């Protein structure tokens, strides 16, 4: 089955630094990937849609200059949290699905736990 | 305003009890999905319901899609400690692949 892999699974960084999270579709090509954020004891909130070869589209309230998304190839999207602050500490999850499969489910990565100290 | 509201928010029960989780919206969806998520992992798809009034069973889990395709329920019979987790309903917006999640129901089943 389709597999989505995230790396790293956990990262701790200091306030003010930037962190890059990778999302890879391992056995299919994904023109679109989605990035979610999940705070403790809460649900997943959609942050942005990553589009291969074009700019990402961000949900309302998500700062595009803070959360940089690059979808440089059909199997890789990256999310960079720039100038991270403790309030950015969260669980970040990506998802994707093979193109052309209408009504088929999204496949989710296992998430990245970001802790900003 | 959350598009998909789940209730209850938290549920703590003893092994063997039955429970129902609800997912409600004022919007109509072409399909709705239920996921289960364990701590530190991504959500895992349990079922997709497509037709209004549809009922799907997955072992001790029964899923129902409302007739008007605005709401859904998940019923667990004889809950087990292994059922513990965060249950999420989700639906795609406007025939896109953009999946929006419900507010979540955190279930704890004690042995």
Topology of this structure?
The complex is a heterodimer of chains A (117) and B (111).
Chain A: E1 4-7, E2 10-13, E3 19-25, E4 32-38, E5 44-51, E6 57-58, E7 67-73, E8 76-81, E9 90-96, E10 107-108, E11 112-116
Parallel strand pairs in A: 2-11
Antiparallel strand pairs in A: 1-3, 3-8, 4-5, 4-9, 5-6, 7-8, 9-10, 9-11
Chain B: E1 5-7, E2 10-14, E3 19-24, E4 32-37, E5 44-49, E6 55-58, E7 61-65, E8 71-76, E9 85-92, E10 99-101, E11 105-110
Parallel strand pairs in B: 2-11
Antiparallel strand pairs in B: 1-3, 3-8, 4-5, 4-9, 6-7, 7-8, 9-10, 9-11
Can you give a write-up of this model?
The complex is a heterodimer of chains A (117) and B (111). Chain A has strands at 4-7, 10-13, 19-25, 32-38, 44-51, 57-58, 67-73, 76-81, 90-96, 107-108, 112-116. By secondary structure, chain A is an all-beta fold. In chain A, the strands form 2 sheets. In chain A, strands 2, 4, 5, 6, 9, 10 and 11 form a 7-stranded mixed sheet that branches. In chain A, strand 7 and strand 8 (76-81) form a beta hairpin. The relative contact order of chain A is 0.33. Chain B is mainly β. In chain B, strands 2, 4, 5, 9, 10 and 11 form a 6-stranded mixed sheet that branches. The A-B interface holds A 4, 6, 32, 34, 36, 41-46, 49, 91, 93, 95, 97, 103, 105-106, 108-111, 113 and B 30-31, 33, 40-45, 48, 50, 86, 88, 97-104, 106.
The chain-level structural class of chain A is: mainly beta
Name the shape of chain A in a single word.
globular
Radius of gyration of chain B equals 13 Å
Percent strand of chain B? over 45%
What series of H and E elements makes up the topology of chain A? EEEEEEEEEEE
Structural class of chain B: mainly beta
Give a brief rundown of this model.
The complex is a heterodimer of chains A (117) and B (111). With 117 residues, chain A is an all-beta fold. Chain A is 0% helix and 50% strand.
List the main descriptive attributes of the protein structure presented here.
heterodimer; A: 117 residues; mainly beta; seven-stranded mixed beta sheet; four-stranded antiparallel beta sheet; 11 strands; 0% helix; 50% strand; B: 111 residues; six-stranded mixed beta sheet; five-stranded antiparallel beta sheet; globular
């Amino acid at each position: 089955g389709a597999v989505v892999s995230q790396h790293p699974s956990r990262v701790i960084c200091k306030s003010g630094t930037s962190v890059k999270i990778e999302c890879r579709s391992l056995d299919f090509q994904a023109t679109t990937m989605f990035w979610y954020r999940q705070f403790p004891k809460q649900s997943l909130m959609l942050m942005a849609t990553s589009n291969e070869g074009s700019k990402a589209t961000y949900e309302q309230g998500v700062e595009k200059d803070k959360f940089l998304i690059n979808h440089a190839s059909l199997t890789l999207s990256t999310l960079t949290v720039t100038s991270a602050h403790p309030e950015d500490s969260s669980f970040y999850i990506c998802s994707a699905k093979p193109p052309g499969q209408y009504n088929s489910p999204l496949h989710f990565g296992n998430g990245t736990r970001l802790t900003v100290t | 305003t959350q598009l998909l509201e789940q209730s209850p928010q938290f549920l703590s029960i003893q092994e063997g009890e039955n429970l129902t989780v609800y997912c409600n919206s004022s919007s109509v969806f072409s399909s709705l999905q239920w996921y289960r998520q364990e701590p530190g992992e991504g959500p895992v798809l349990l079922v997709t319901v497509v037709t209004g009034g549809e009922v799907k069973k997955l072992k001790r889990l029964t899923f129902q899609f409302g007739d008007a395709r605005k709401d859904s329920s998940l019923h667990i019979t004889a809950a087990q400690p292994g059922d513990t987790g965060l249950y999420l309903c989700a639906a795609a917006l406007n025939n896109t692949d953009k999946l929006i999640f419900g507010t979540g129901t955190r279930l704890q089943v004690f042995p």
